[in-house]
Amino acid sequence: MLDLVQAQGFVSVEALAQHFAVTSQTIRRDINALCGAGLLRRYHGGAGLPSSVENVNYQARRILLPEAKARIGKAMAARIPDKASVFITLGTTTEAVAMALREHEGLRVITNNLNVATVLADSPGCEVIVAGGVVRQRDRGITGEATIDFVNQFKVDYAVLGISGIEADGTLLDFDYHEVRVIQAILRNARSTLLGADHSKFGRNAMVRVADISAINELYTDAEPPAFVRRAMAENGGRLVVTNADSHAAGALDASGRGGMFESEH
Questions:
Q1: What pLDDT shows up at residue 265?
Q2: I need a surface site. Which of 77, 165, 230, 261 has the fewest CB within 10 A?
């Protein structure tokens, strides 16, 4: 249901009932549950996308597409070598990357995400440096002017990013102006940028511009992306990695999809 609404913007109760071969009452119950989690917005006769000015709450995002995020996290973590320096930003996808980095050796991880810091704090191969600033109670993210000043002290090998939405023109979007300013500082201070975005982020609306997709060196996702994403990555010499449900570990990737993922590199 979420995929259909994401693709079409609005879907009627009748169309959903027909698509899933269930009753309208069943669809209305499902819509109520998804609206309660902040994943859909109820409209007369159907359901549409949530607000472009307010993100889905953190606990709901944690349970949305967890397997896809885990696959993306493993693929991104496999790209990062031992003894590297890494920025890791806010988001549930970046937290999946942190989970997959726990066996790395000699990492220096700088983060404004207390959840990431907690995941990696007991890893003997990681030194974790936590940014200063204001802690947001809703997701334990750290933002603000002090955070930007902190980020600007470093120049790291990799930035690991998540995003709220990717517009059809290639604009990367988020909801929180303060968070976006921190992400922009991280982009300026990383030698290579890795973005993790599950398929629900393609075409999703949010109100604050982060950057253009051309600022991203590598994009990791869980399903074949829209043509505009593939075209933008190709035009800017970016690397696109698509995982699938058979992904277990990231090794040599090929265009046939063997190993559970495939990549396009330009």
A1: 43
A2: 230
